Amino acid sequence: MEKELDLGAEGTDATPDVQDVEAVVEPKDESWIKELIAAKAELDKIKSDQAEREAQAERDKAEQEGRLDEALALEKSRYEELKKKYQADTTRLQLNAAFATADIADLRAIKLFEDEFNPETEDAAAFVARIKADPANALYFRDPKSRPIQTPPMSAARGTIDPFVPERDSETWLKSSDPKKRERAIAHHREVYRKKYGL
After folding, report:
1. pTM of this prediction?
2. Rounded distance between C-alpha atoms, residue 184 and residue 9, angstroms
3. Torsion region of 103: left, alpha or beta (phi above 0 gives left; psi -120 to 50 gives alpha)
4. How confident is the model at residue 67, as a pLDDT?
């Protein structure tokens, strides 16, 4: 019975070279990473806004009390902080762009190298080229030659079945005149039923 479930739209003895397209192109669920990044960005913005309000209140109080030199010093300090933040953001964007162009495997790896980068003495592209040239850093970069070539699924008219996407195809494949499609849809519904009722 299990053997029947493995056949279906993915391939039979008649089509031995057909791969399970769903397994090849199914993306990893990385939504939690995006949610975590968004939450951190929101928290950082809240902290930044709160610090700005507190600094503004302190400057306003110094002005109202006639301590103009102190108010001016606070305003200069705020300007310097904003300037540093702008420079750090610009540097980060330059590095992200340069690393992405250099085929870095994961953008999170940039944090390993960003402290070494000095934008006043070196261009971002030259810095990244130097990092990539170091054999010790090879694992952080993709090799363009070793990328798997993704081929689109062949149509049913050419002898194979399109990939089965349950949310889209379940009902139409159950009613299909193609026995392989019907078998694939039935196998999917059996599996859902087994999981639902713990069989």
Report:
1. 0.41
2. 6
3. left
4. 80
Provide the 3-class DSSP secondary structure of residue 81: helix
Q: How many CB atoms lie within 10 A of CB 55?
A: 15
What is the pLDDT, as a whole number, of residue 153?
A: 54
- 125-180 per-position pLDDT tens digit: 888 888 888 888 888 888 766 655 555 555 444 555 567 777 777 778 778 888 88
| Those residues with Cβ within 8 angstroms of residue 155's Cβ, 6 or more apart along the chain or in another chain | 162
The residue ranges of every structural domain in the chain are: 31-144, 161-199
Q: How far apart are CA 76 and CA 6, in angstroms?
A: 70
pLDDT in tens, 180-195: 888 888 887 788 777 7
Give the ranges where 65-178 is alpha helix by DSSP (H).
68-101, 124-133, 166-174
Query: Rounded CA gap, 7 and 184, in Å?
Result: 8
User: CB–CB of 127/154 below 8 Å?
Assistant: no
User: What is the rounded CA–CA span in Å between residue 83 and residue 44?
Assistant: 17
> What is the number of helices (H) and of strands (E) in the chain?
7, 0
